[in-house]
Design a protein that fits this description.
Blueprint (H helix, E strand, L loop, with lengths): L1 E5 L5 E5 L11 E9 L2 H8 L15 E8 L11 E4 L9 H4 L25 E4 L2 H4 E3 L6 H5 L4 H11 L8 E5 L3 H10 L6 E6 L2 H10 L3 E4 L5 H8 L5 E6 L4 H10 E9 L11 H4 L5 E3 L8 H9 L9 E6 L3 H9 L1 H4 L3 E5 L1
Helix pairs in contact: 5-6
Length: 346
């Protein structure tokens, strides 16, 4: 089969590799029908995730058809169409029992495209398949469900739920890429009074309006701190969500929060960021971080099936498998191409 293989920082190739096989009783081999590229994949290619070894197949999001299951698998069967989650769960360790699947101690967590071969391939082996894939509901498209593999549960759990968004809140979202837009979509489920989107790209700010932002700020031309304070009587945002993963955006997210406010960091950081405790120690702020657990995926699937969220709106570009390198180029140049999420299909 062919797969997108990582060969060290800045190097990847769509190349021939062995097809995965069942190794453990709980495994499933899934024929990949649709896959996408994540900002985390770009971080890997920058060298920000050194645990990813040369030769690793990239990717942690897919929708596919079950081809084969191990003798221990009970909830899915060959022929089922499934969502392959970005998080793998053993289902039995302390953290899995608490719903913190991202911290799985039993060999799960974020492993696909990280510690084991991932989904950007014609086939993928999924460990702990009973607790790590979700059967696709009837009447929804693979493209829409694919957005629930990572960006929507990540933004919902790590941004909106961890950030304590409540009705009437003012929410500032720093970064209007796919994760930031997903945070805007998820925040709207809780009826905030204002959602302020901050980005350097006008195209992404325009997208933020379409996803539900009430105010947009280009921080190349405007001072977002001044805008947020003007909208809040000088206080700041109830919740600020960092959705980029660079030091400047984290520091901005902290500055935007009101006294007693909450800062939810979603971004994947490859460099240290400064926390100005000399300014913040007195302000009663709460800073939360997190890796997605995907405990919310069943809820989001029901919302998708009930037409309460429009996940397909994230998709801006389509490619077939033989165009994988081009898909990466388009996604990595989002400021020029306008790409939000790309979908690559057979």
């Amino acid at each position: 089969m062919r797969a997108m293989v990582y060969h060290g920082p800045g190097h990847k190739a769509w190349e021939e590799v062995p097809k995965p096989q069942i190794i453990d009783p709980g495994d499933a081999v899934v024929r990949v029908d649709a896959v996408t590229i994540c900002g985390t994949d770009l971080h890997i290619l920058k060298g920000d995730v050194p645990a990813v070894a040369d030769g690793r197949i990239l990717g942690h999001e897919a929708v596919g058809t079950v081809e084969e299951v191990g003798p221990g698998v009970k909830t899915i069967k060959p022929g089922d169409q499934v969502l392959v989650s970005c998080i793998t769960s053993c289902g039995t360790c302390r953290f899995c029992r608490e719903g913190r699947y991202g911290q799985c101690l039993g060999g799960g967590g974020w492993i696909l495209g990280h510690k084991i071969d991932g989904t950007q391939a014609e086939y993928v082996r999924v460990p702990y398949a009973d607790t790590s894939v979700h059967v696709v509901p009837d009447g929804v498209s693979a493209q829409d469900v694919l957005m629930l593999a990572d960006i929507l549960p990540t933004s919902y759990e790590v941004g909106v739920l961890n950030g304590g968004v409540s009705p009437g809140d003012v929410v500032a979202v720093v970064g209007a890429g796919p994760i930031g837009l997903a945070a805007i979509m998820a925040a709207r489920l809780y009826s905030p009074s204002q959602i302020i989107a901050i980005d350097l790209a006008d195209s992404r700010l325009e997208a933020a309006k379409q996803f539900g932002a009430s105010v947009t700020v280009n921080n190349g031309r405007q001072d977002p701190l001044a805008v947020v304070r003007e909208l809040t009587g000088g206080l700041g945002a109830d919740t600020s969500i960092e959705a980029v993963g660079v030091p400047d955006t984290f520091e901005l997210a902290v500055a935007l929060a009101r006294p007693g406010g909450r800062i939810a960091n979603i971004g994947v950081h490859g460099r240290p960021a400064t926390l100005h405790l000399e300014e913040q120690w007195i302000r009663d702020i709460t800073i939360v971080t997190g890796l997605v657990d995907t405990f919310s995926t069943p809820t989001l699937l029901r919302l998708l099936a009930g037409h309460q969220i429009e996940a397909g709106r994230f998709v801006t570009h389509h490619f077939n498998f033989d165009e994988f390198p081009k898909a990466y180029d388009v996604f990595a140049s989002a400021a020029d191409t306008g790409a939000l999420k790309v979908v690559i299909t057979r």
